[in-house]
């Protein structure tokens, strides 16, 4: 049993209840730390995404080709490369 005043001072605590409260507080702290880490990771990923889009737009402006046609060209190049060096075998 926890007896507390308005200032949240604990006067008397049952050891079992204290352990339960400590576990709850630890879970809350871990959840806050996990949320903070996820926000940090998301901010980093967002920064890289913006950098990538900026690079694509610069290349599009320089070459005059839209981004999707450039990607299609890269995929076509990869398909030709794999077809040349790893030809499909007919059974």
From TrEMBL:
Report which superkingdom the organism of origin falls in: Eukaryota
Task: Show the Gene3D superfamilies listed in the entry.
Answer: Chlorophyll a/b binding protein domain
Q: Which GO terms describe its cellular component?
A: chloroplast thylakoid membrane
Q: Where in the cell is it found?
A: Plastid, Chloroplast
Listed Pfam families:
Chloroa_b-bind
- Write the record's keywords in alphabetical order, separated by commas: Chloroplast, Plastid
Quick check: keyword Chloroplast in the entry?
A: yes
Q: What is this protein called?
A: Uncharacterized protein
User: From which organism does this entry originate?
Assistant: Adiantum capillus-veneris
């Amino acid at each position: 049993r926890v007896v507390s005043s308005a200032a949240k001072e604990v006067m008397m605590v049952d050891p079992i209840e204290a352990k339960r409260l400590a576990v709850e507080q630890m879970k809350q702290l871990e959840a806050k730390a996990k949320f903070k880490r996820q926000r940090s990771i998301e901010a980093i990923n967002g920064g890289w995404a913006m950098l990538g889009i900026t690079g694509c737009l610069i290349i599009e402006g320089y070459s005059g080709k839209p981004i999707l046609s450039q990607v299609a060209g890269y995929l076509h190049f990869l398909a030709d490369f794999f077809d040349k060096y790893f030809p499909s075998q007919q059974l």
